[in-house]
TrEMBL record, chains A, B:
The keyword Glycoprotein applies. InterPro entries: Nucleotide-diphossugar_trans (IPR029044), RGP (IPR004901), RGP_fam (IPR037595). Belongs to the RGP family. PANTHER family: UDP-ARABINOPYRANOSE MUTASE 1, UDP-ARABINOSE MUTASE. It catalyses: UDP-beta-L-arabinofuranose = UDP-beta-L-arabinopyranose. GO terms for biological process: cell wall organization; plant-type cell wall organization or biogenesis; UDP-L-arabinose metabolic process. Keywords: Cell wall biogenesis/degradation, Glycoprotein, Golgi apparatus, Isomerase. It is found in: Golgi apparatus. This is UDP-arabinopyranose mutase. One of its GO terms (molecular function) is UDP-arabinopyranose mutase activity. Its EC number is 5.4.99.30. It comes from Trapa incisa. Glycans are attached at residue 156.
Length: 365, 365
């Protein structure tokens, strides 16, 4: 509304301003946004309110947002709302589904602006956008890390034919202060803080799985969105705190299959508060055992050549989950069905366009 | 010779003092050692003099060393000396062969002590030793990098069964100032300097190849020594500057097969001088084409289960090189034969002991 000043002319517009949504799952007032205001205010927020839908969530003035509570989710998805977790931050994936943008950044409400070693506030979103807009290099490791970073390049011995890289689908950011540890490690090392600022972004090589944390994560919704399902956690489920892990395993095998890249490293956020390790242990308990079988399963997943879209890959993956993991626990049978429901809901909310049908003609590698 | 002072009691002995040799290939006087004196003086040096054997190489006083020139190599290996490159720093691998120690650190004579961001001189050797003495984690990626580093650990979602890790065979260090670029990149970016200090060590995942640089490299000779052959380069050969790359591809597929780890990252050295890009282009020329076929070859190499020792793996690899790469150029036929000669020479100089026969009963993965 203010008159345009000379300064405004000089300032470049925020990158991807109209192409990116910020998704925040929450149960509380969002004062944490105050600290992010300089970086987030130009963007649209999608707030997914978890728990009691009658509670009012306060959002600081000046932010542009849509807020969805459980009633909204049910209204929009009908019986398919069953695939969206309740009383667990896994509900955030509903925000991915209803977004109309190409890119998503998702962040937890206990994450604040971190500082780099020079003391400068880190614009996490800007770094994620950089990561997403430049290629990944999953087929060969570059020892100087991201070859597209300023002052870096491919080193001697890096095959020239691989230097184009592949499109980046996911950018996984890290956390200073409270590290993302499991309950047993939290119990054993209650005072450990992450103080190591590692100035690097790197592509996770093809064929390698990683523990994807949903606290500080960005992705290209058009490239990988339908696989970013955070599973069934929380209320009525036997497990919690594996929502992002599940999504991470799924997206990685699908990115590997479709020739897309996954990056990890910068940006850091400041993770303020350790969650209660006893509560966490209760949530994680079964997962600690199950992951020993789930990970070999994902390490050996092979998707057929005719899976040329994310949706097709995901439906195929759901079949393999049902077939191979149901014997671990009946939960995986339910999860496999929810994976199908998720895709049905995704397609209902996001009817195919010419762009997405173009994608489904992509080449599988 | 000096009387033991109180201070000496307080100082811990240099790590692995009697178990590590420092291998330096050179054609010039070794003044560069002055800067390394505080870190290297306690260790034994193996200097491999390249080029004219009548030239005298000056080594600063106080260092304990053996120096081998071309005449020494011929005397020791006889006709098998043909597998050791001449007029190329690839000759350094002769030093690996004649060492009697468990660990090797090799460094180029244009590499100096770098400083960390706090301005402290980096003891590169000490960091390599740390890397080698703690396990690697090649089967799953840890997003906080080396889980064994101070203040770090495995993150949430890292399978507990994989947290033992595997023995580390190789530690690949990096370079500040002059980055290790190929000739085309040197020509295009003559002024680029590496100023990014990335405070991380990481395991290169199983199944992923990397460009291994021989400038600043350490390894466990008992675990992987016989595969650290730097090939046929320099005088009389159609190629140069691929010695360390060749070794890197070979050791990686063998480490993957035997369940051993390869790390990259810290420590940094200060690489002082860019080599001439025109000379380099002449040396690299064929390699730029060949690597496009060599890398897919190594990516698809499969070693049979009965290859349970490094030597057996290496002989098997030589057969596959002969079979699959000779069609790229007759050079690979010669190289495959040299690989066999190298193993013969290695076994002659290092007759099997109970320790190494124990190794050959190890389990292949």
């Amino acid at each position: 509304m203010a008159a345009t000043t000379k300064l405004d002319y000089a300032k470049p517009p925020p990158p991807l301003k109209d192409e990116l949504d910020i998704v925040i799952p929450t149960i509380r007032n969002l004062e944490f946004l105050e600290m992010w205001r300089p970086f987030f205010e130009p963007y649209h927020l999608i707030i997914v309110q978890d728990g009691d839908p009658t509670k009012t969530i306060k959002v600081p003035d000046g932010f542009d947002y849509d807020l969805y509570n459980r009633n909204d989710i049910k209204k929009l998805l009908g019986p398919r709302a069953s695939c969206i977790s309740f009383k667990d931050s896994a509900c955030r994936c509903f925000g991915y589904m209803v977004s109309k943008k190409k890119y998503i950044f998702t962040i937890d409400d206990d994450c604040f602006v971190a500082k780099d070693p020079s003391g400068k506030a880190i614009n996490a979103l800007e770094q994620h956008i950089k990561n997403l807009l430049c290629p990944s290099t999953p087929f060969f490791f570059n020892t100087l890390y991201d070859p597209f970073a300023d002052g870096a390049d491919f080193v001697r011995g890096y095959p020239f034919s691989l230097r184009d890289g592949v499109p980046t689908a996911v950018s996984h950011g890290l956390w200073l202060n409270i590290p993302d540890y499991d309950a047993p490690t939290q119990l054993v090392k209650p005072l450990e803080r992450n103080q190591r600022y590692v100035d690097a972004v790197l592509t996770i090589p093809k064929g390698t799985l990683f523990p994807m944390c949903g606290m500080n994560l960005a992705f290209d919704r058009e490239l990988i969105g339908p696989a970013m399902y955070f599973g069934l956690m929380g209320d009525g489920q036997p497990i919690g705190r594996y929502d992002d892990m599940w999504a991470g395993w799924c997206i990685k095998v699908i990115c590997d299959h479709l020739g897309l890249g996954v990056k990890t490293g910068l940006p850091y956020i400041w993770h303020s508060k350790a969650s209660n390790p006893f509560v966490n242990l209760r949530k994680e308990y079964k997962g600690i055992f199950w992951q020993e079988e789930i990970i070999p399963f994902f390490q050996s997943v092979s998707l057929p050549k005719d899976c040329t879209s994310v949706q097709k890959c995901y439906i195929e993956l759901s079949k393999q989950v049902k077939e191979k993991l149901s014997k671990v626990d009946p939960y995986f049978d339910k999860l496999a069905s929810a994976m199908v429901t998720w895709i049905e809901a995704w397609e209902e909310i996001n009817p195919p366009t010419s762009a997405s049908s173009k994608l489904s003609n992509g080449t599988a590698k």
